[in-house]
Design goal:
- The chain is mainly beta.
- The protein has 16 domains: 106 residues, Immunoglobulin-like (Sandwich), CATH 2.60.40; 85 residues, Immunoglobulin-like (Sandwich); 80 residues, Immunoglobulins (Immunoglobulin-like); 77 residues, Immunoglobulin-like; 81 residues, Immunoglobulin-like (Sandwich); 71 residues, Immunoglobulin-like, CATH 2.60.40; 82 residues, Immunoglobulin-like (Sandwich), CATH 2.60.40.10; 82 residues, Immunoglobulin-like, CATH 2.60.40.10; and more.
- The protein contains 1 helix and 123 strands.
- The chain is extended and about 220 Å long.
- 30% of the residues are buried.
- One of its GO terms (biological process) is angiogenesis.
- It comes from Engystomops pustulosus (Tungara frog).
- Keywords: Signal.
């Protein structure tokens, strides 16, 4: 504002001066310079000095005033500062003296932005965004330029200076690339200095991260993204924590993370770095689960179960899959949760070896471990040892289920082994003899089943047979018993069994003490002959001897004397007594006098006495005789029968269920009367009346039945009878029905038989005209037939039932069958109609129904007509069909039918088709049925009006017909007539057809040695022809052109054809629009040679080449390969479409000539080229360290073919070069001073000319061996082994353990690191001596091993199993056990008293013993027995068992202390007695309980009371 005021004042002063003193000052500008915030102007003013002022104005009305400086007399200059950059100023130089002014326009230089930066948060892989601060002053626009590292401009952007957002975006850039961004402020035509910065696009992340997992490592691979990449960084994270990080070269696309935990999920991130920026991609991966440890398969003594146990592996897992296999086949598979450590498999085969696979599953990864186990074999079944003679035993058994290898059979006499033998698994029995067996003695037999070292034992006992008794005889006998005696044999016996046999049937068996010498058999059958047998028993074996004897016969029983209803005779009957009988003696006694004495056979049980006095009392005596011995007598009495009544009368009183009976009194003594009704043996309940009553009645009887009436006279227990008969009234019939049987003059009457009894039926028939007929029907029939009746008439029928002199009736009605109509006739017919007529039927008719049938199936619904109708008309029928017309006559519900057949007129044939069918002398005629039924067709052919031929064709199921007429004239028109026949009717259809003209003969084509011309020639065709049509076609049949010539032409020329192409020429003869068969020939032009032949590929034994096909067409190629000396090396053909080929089996490095010959017909052309094969690489490249740790030997076979130079390069594992050499002739080379255990790569390049070939091989030096093997924590099945590893500067990855014996051990690395100097060994056999060797291992690929170091160790033996100690007596105990499944030398057995630490006994025994008896102990003391197992200097755990020795039995009671018979209660089946516990002394220990033994006595006094009664402690 001050400037503006000052400027205004100056103008006032200047104006005043000008007015006052007008002095002129000239202004000549000589120089002007412009800066960002200032301008410099220099001018000259000749003459007198002048005072000047320089004023600068901008568009914003601001002014800047500069006071000039006079440099010389006429030179002035002024620098005006404080201007705005980039602003356009109007500069005025004013002479203060005279107001002379000079104007010029200047623009200050624009300033660049003070800050230019890349917006980091917006950087992507393909774009960059920059921002800047506004430049001071004025800017028209900003110009930004993007350049690459080479300074090449990539993109330019202009941003207006007034745009509020000072930002610019560069897109479509290359990922991971550094760019230079420069910005220039532009004002007018001026630009500021350029400001530049560098910016980079982010690299593209990797693609397709793939992982391959192991238990302790994950191998990662990926696909690089597009753009620039400088390096990769791989990160391994778990739970958002970085576990491992590594930076890789950009050529690397794989990486392996080692030392990981099994089964864990990791985040794998691959970071791509370039131009100072990074981008990343990640993937989740899981390590494979580790194997389980301490895997064992145990049978725990079971034959059908196996228990699998393991220790969980390190790391994580989701579940286990346990698979049990047998003989290579999976049997069971189970999935268990991760917390499981065991599983049991059941229902297995005994003795079988199984394989168990435990698979650890984590996600979709799994790890498998295998172990084996065997079930315990089963015992043999049904083990029996039977006597095979007095000094032999037969041992037999049923084989066990499952698998086994062999048997062991052991024979014991108490604790002494008499026999121990081994048998193969197919044995089923074994005979023991010649081992000094004692007759009658019991032996113990065991059969051991063995399978894979496991055994199972079955036991049984066997005994030899004893000897029989001597001098066996019968002592005495009676009716029910006899006694036998014998002498005791000299043998070992348990007891006797006496038995009694009757006719070889044994029914008595009795066990006797071995001291017994006689026995009495009781409850025997009288009069019977018996065989007594005495069997000597020893165990379950016996021997016997027998004797015969007879008992006294028994008397008869149930002797009766009866009169059999007669008044003059008696009948004696008895039951034979028990036992055997020879005969009976029978005596009859009356009034104490024997009047009859008879002897009858043993089978007789009755006898009859005649001519006796009626009502007399008699006695009979019967005696049994058997073997001359008589039984006791039997006696019985009997009486005769009284007389019967007379004068019986019976009456039914007209009822069907009632009878009344009366009679006269009987002569003699009568107690009561009994009246009984019966019919055919069926007796009604009787009525018993006193002797004063002479009549009675019965109701509820059966109708029409003739009853037998019986009146019984009773006197004492005897009766007599009188008889009479009478009918009840019969009942009517039921279910009365009438049937006409489909006949017009016939009726059949049937019914259900009447209830009750009757004699016959009577049937009466009548109609409305009172026609009557009566018929009598037998009682066994239930039907009646009437004939000669009126058709269709209704009749009434009555059926009467007659029984004796009584009858009852029932009624019904029935109708005869109507007659059919007469004179049924087909009156007229058409193709679709039939008309029939008829005459009225005889008899009674209600209506008519008419029906149309075809093949007995209804065509139309039934049509009902009145009984006066006599015709009917059918329409819409099928042509040519034979119908059946049925007319039905109805009378009531009855009907009768008759029919007539009618044939409709057939329809004409349709769709007649006539064709020459490609033939010149024949016509084929085809047609289809016109509908309806047809029997046959007749087809005829006419030339003009003359019939040439006719043919009949039978009907077929397809409804399509055809016929061919031969020997016709080519090109002639014919008339065809097709006649349809159905039955006796027919119909015609006419059509026309023409034969085909014949083709031209002797057609041929000639190229006349021209590549563009073919001439076609032929001879005239036979027959009539209008013209010839010629077709030129490609060899594939595509039409090129066609021509028509007159019938007189015989040749034609085709021009402008393709060279080397094959053509087909077809000629047709045309007659009235019909074409003949084609006549065809072929022609071909000369081919051209191929072009563009070049080599496209070569190898050590092949050359590949391509070419461009020649113009035109060709048939094939012949390809020739020539050696450098122009001799033919190879030849092969090629199809016409072939544009490339190759030769195989060539010599490496040789120059060959290739010639391609083109064939088209008989013409050829050729092209050629030279080519060389690639030199071959060396072969049989082998590498060996020869068990050295610092050298490698490489051997190879020189390459085939021409070789100029071999170049060998050895590389370190990181790809750096270790050594290099070149040679013309070389077969092997030794590299020395190498690192032990390191993997090296050898590259051998074969040079031949300008071509080369290479081959690589890898080899590893042997690692240095470990040192100082030691063993710790040695147990029965596990231990730890440690050693010192090789020096750290050498390469090695792991250690390998080997051992002898080669048991299936489990080696566990507790540190999960291969270089760890220790392992845990499990699965060792207890007590076994092992030798271990340890070698260093280097690498998983090309693995090498160091020399071994060795060490020996022995495991502890297992403790014994199933220790069982039991008292033998009061001073000895017996202990037995199961030997351990271990390698061991023997046992140490010790015992001490319970509660004492003093060992009283110690003994070392051999390993084959598994039992020991310890004697000289104190009675009733508890002893603790311990057993230890020894294997060299290793001792197992101690197994202890305690037991108490027996006490001595108490002293025997005094002889006067016994059970008193008087104080005992004895019944038939029990003995009750009591005794006092004080009878037994506590001298040898307290008595705890008693045992009572009861045995059958033999009548002798008891000599040894403690056999019956003794006490147990």
């Amino acid at each position: 504002m001050l400037r503006y005021v000052f400027g205004l004042s100056l103008w006032i002063v200047l104006s005043f001066i000008q007015v006052v003193e007008p002095v002129k000052c000239t202004i000549n500008i000589t120089e002007s310079r412009v800066f960002s915030q200032s301008v410099y102007v220099r001018w000259k003013s000749p003459g007198n000095p002048c005072n000047f002022s320089m004023i600068g104005r901008s568009s914003n009305l601001w002014e800047n005033i500069c006071n000039p400086i006079q440099r010389t007399n006429d030179s002035y200059e002024c620098t005006q500062s404080g201007l705005e950059a980039g602003t356009l100023y109007n500069i005025s130089i004013v002479a203060l003296q005279d107001g002379e002014a000079k104007n010029l326009t200047l623009q200050t230089d624009p300033l660049p932005p003070s800050q230019l930066e890349v917006k980091r948060n917006t950087v992507t892989s393909t774009s960059l965004q920059v921002s800047w601060t506004s430049s001071p002053g004025w800017v028209d626009h900003y110009e930004l330029q993007l350049r690459n590292k080479q300074g090449e401009s990539i993109q330019n952007v202009n941003i207006h200076g007034n745009f509020p957002q000072k930002e610019a975006l560069f897109s479509a850039l290359n990922p991971g690339t550094q760019y230079s961004i420069s910005i220039t402020a532009m004002s007018g035509n001026k630009s500021s200095p350029t400001v530049s910065i560098n910016g980079s696009t982010a690299p593209m992340p990797v693609k397709s991260i793939d992982t391959h997992s192991k238990a302790d490592s994950i191998h990662v691979s990926w696909m690089p993204g597009s753009g620039n990449i400088e390096y990769y960084k791989v990160l391994l994270l778990q739970n958002k924590k970085i576990i491992s990080e590594d930076t890789l070269d950009k050529q690397m696309t794989t990486y392996t993370f080692n030392g990981l935990l099994p089964g864990h999920i990791y985040n794998i991130t691959v970071i791509t770095g370039a131009a100072g920026l990074q981008n990343w991609n990640s993937n989740l991966a899981r390590t494979a689960p580790a194997e389980v440890s301490d895997l064992s398969v145990l049978n725990e003594g079971s034959s059908t179960k196996l228990k699998v146990r393991w220790k969980p592996p390190l790391g994580k897992l989701d579940s286990y899959n346990i698979t049990l296999s047998e003989k290579g086949t999976s049997k069971y598979s189970r999935t268990l949760n991760a917390a499981s450590t065991e599983v049991t498999f059941e229902d297995l085969t005994p003795g079988r070896l199984y394989q168990v696979n435990v698979t650890c599953i984590a996600g979709d990864l799994s790890t498998d471990k295998m172990a084996i186990g065997r079930t315990v074999p089963e015992r043999v079944k049904d083990l029996k040892a039977t006597s095979n003679g007095v000094k032999s035993l037969r041992v037999s058994w049923v084989p066990p289920a499952g698998d086994w290898h062999q048997y062991h059979l052991v024979l014991y006499n108490q604790s002494t082994v008499l026999l121990n033998t081994t048998m193969e698994d197919h044995y089923r029995e074994f005979i023991i003899h010649d081992v000094g067996l004692i007759p009658g003695r019991q032996y113990d037999v065991s059969v051991v089943v063995e399978s894979g070292g496991l055994t199972n034992t079955a036991y049984c006992k066997g005994r030899t047979a004893p000897q029989a008794v001597q001098q066996l005889q019968v002592k005495h006998a009676n009716e029910s018993s006899f006694s036998i005696t014998w002498r005791t044999p000299l043998t070992d016996l348990d007891n006797y069994v006496v038995s009694l046999a009757d006719r070889d049937l044994i029914f008595i068996n009795k066990i006797l003490l071995k001291e017994s010498k006689e026995f009495t058999f009781a409850d025997l059958v009288p009069g019977r002959k018996y065989t007594a047998k005495v069997t000597s028993f020893s165990g379950d074996l016996n021997n016997w001897v027998s004797v015969e004897g007879r008992t006294v016969p028994s008397q008869v029983t149930q002797l009766n004397l009866v009169n059999q209803g007669k008044s003059s005779s008696l009948y004696a009957e008895w039951t034979k007594g028990r036992g055997d009988v020879d005969a009976f003696q029978v005596l009859l006694i009356h009034e104490n006098i024997v009047i009859k004495n008879e002897s009858v056979s043993s089978e007789a049980t009755k006898y009859q006495f005649h001519s006796l006095k009626p009502g007399g009392l008699y006695s009979v005596v019967v005696t049994t005789l058997s073997g001359g011995i008589a039984s006791r007598q039997s006696l019985a009495e009997g009486r005769t029968v009284p007389s019967s009544v007379g004068g019986i009368t019976v009456n039914n009183n007209g009822q069907s269920d009632y009878l009344r009976i009366s009679w006269l009194q009987a002569v003699g003594d009568v107690d009561t009367y009994v009246v009984t009704l019966s019919h055919n043996g069926n007796i009604l309940p009787p009525l018993t009346l006193s002797k004063s009553i002479h009549e009675c009645s019965f109701s509820g009887l059966t109708s029409g039945r003739l009853y037998n009436v019986t009146v019984t006279t009773r006197s004492g227990k005897f009766e007599n009878y009188s008889f009479s008969q009478e009918w009840t009234v019969p009942s009517a019939v039921q279910g009365l029905t009438v049937s006409n049987a489909g006949r017009s003059d016939y009726l059949k009457v049937s019914w259900l038989h009447s209830l009750g009894d009757f004699d016959q039926y009577k049937v009466i028939i009548k109609d409305n005209n009172n026609f009557i007929n009566t018929t009598v029907v037998n009682k066994l029939q239930n039907e009646c037939v009437f004939s000669n009746l009126v058709p269709g008439r209704l009749y009434s029928i009555t059926v009467s039932t007659e029984s004796g002199k009584y009858e009852t009736s029932a009624m019904t009605s029935g109708r005869t069958f109507p007659e059919a109509v007469k004179k049924l006739t087909l009156a007229r017919r058409g193709s679709e109609e039939l008309h029939v007529t008829w005459s009225r039927a005889d008899g009674d008719v209600d209506r008519y129904e008419i029906q149309l049938l075809y093949n007995d199936m209804s065509v139309l619904p039934l049509i009902t007509l009145s009984n006066t109708a006599s015709e009917y008309h059918f329409t819409s029928l099928t042509p040519g069909r034979l119908y059946k017309i049925v007319v039905l006559t109805f009378s009531g519900d009855a009907q009768r039918s008759t029919f007539v057949e009618g044939l409709t007129v057939p329809s004409a044939a349709k769709n007649i088709y006539i064709s020459p069918n490609g033939m010149t002398n024949s016509l084929i005629v085809k047609w289809t049925s016109g509908g309806g039924d047809v029997d046959s067709y007749m087809v005829a052919i006419f030339r003009q009006i003359n019939q040439i031929e006719a043919h009949t064709i039978s009907k077929n199921i397809y409804e399509h017909y055809e016929h061919t007429f031969n020997n016709l004239i080519p090109g002639e028109q014919y008339k065809i007539v097709v006649q349809t026949n159905s039955g006796s009717l027919s119909k015609n259809m006419t059509s026309f057809g023409r034969t085909m003209p014949s083709m031209v003969p002797k057609l041929w084509a000639d190229n006349e040695y021209n590549s563009h011309l073919l001439v076609v020639n032929w001879q005239s065709a036979q027959g009539i022809a209008d013209r010839y049509d010629l077709l030129l076609l490609t060899n594939q049949g595509a039409l090129i052109t066609n021509k028509s010539v007159s019938a007189t032409a015989k040749s034609h020329k085709f021009e402008e054809l393709v060279p080397g192409k094959k053509y087909k020429i077809q000629v047709f003869t045309v007659s009235s629009g019909l074409f003949s068969k084609v006549a065809q020939t072929e022609g071909q032009t000369v081919p051209a040679a191929v072009t563009g032949l070049k080599i496209t590929g070569n190898s050590t034994d092949s050359l590949s080449f391509t070419w461009t096909s020649a113009e035109g067409e060709l048939d094939s190629y012949d390809i020739f390969l020539y050696n450098p000396d122009n001799t033919l090396h190879d030849r092969k053909p090629g199809v016409q479409s072939l544009k490339q080929s190759s030769f195989q089996g060539l010599l490496p490095g040789r120059l060959y000539k290739i010639v391609i010959v083109t064939h088209s017909g008989s013409l050829t052309n050729e092209s050629s080229i030279h080519g060389r094969t690639v030199p071959a690489p060396v072969t049989n490249l082998q590498a060996s360290n020869r068990n050295t740790s610092n050298s490698l030997w490489f051997m190879f076979t020189p390459a085939l073919g021409d070789v100029d130079l071999y170049e060998l390069t050895l590389y370190n594992p990181n790809g750096t070069q270790k050594e290099r050499l070149q040679a013309n002739v070389l077969k092997e080379h030794n590299f020395q001073n190498l690192v032990p255990g390191r993997l090296y790569k050898l590259l051998i390049v074969t040079h031949s000319g300008d071509l080369s070939n290479k081959v690589t091989a890898e080899a590893r030096t042997a690692p240095q061996p470990p040192n100082s093997v030691s063993f710790t924590d040695v147990k029965n099945t596990s231990m730890s082994i440690t050693w010192l590893g090789p020096p750290e500067w050498t390469d090695y990855d792991d250690f390998e353990l080997q051992w002898t014996p080669t048991d299936p051990l489990v080696v566990f690395n507790p540190y999960s690191i291969g270089k760890s100097n220790g392992r845990i060994i499990t699965g060792l056999r207890p007590g076994r001596l092992y030798k271990f060797s340890v070698r260093s291992v280097s690498g998983n690929v090309k693995k090498t091993l160091s020399l071994p170091i060795t060490g020996t160790v022995r495991t502890k033996p297992d403790k014994i199993q199933h220790l069982h100690c039991r008292p033998q007596n009061s001073t000895a105990i017996s202990c037995s056990w199961t030997p351990p499944d271990s390698d061991f030398d023997g046992y140490t057995i010790e015992y001490k008293k319970n509660g004492s630490d003093v060992v009283e006994y110690s003994k070392r025994i051999e390993k084959h013993k598994a039992a020991l008896t310890i004697m000289h102990l104190e009675p009733h003391k508890r002893y603790v027995v311990s057993v230890k197992v020894h294997s060299a200097d290793m001792i197992s755990q101690v197994v202890e068992e305690s037991t108490i020795t027996m006490i001595d039995r108490p002293p025997q009671p005094p002889l006067h202390v016994r059970v008193n018979r008087k104080d005992s209660f004895i019944s038939k089946s029990s003995i009750h007695f009591s005794f006092n516990c004080s009878w037994f002394s506590d001298t040898n220990g307290a008595v705890k309980y008693f045992t009572v033994i009861v045995s059958e006595a033999d009548g002798k006094p008891i000599l040894n009371p403690n056999v019956l009664l003794f006490c147990l402690l």
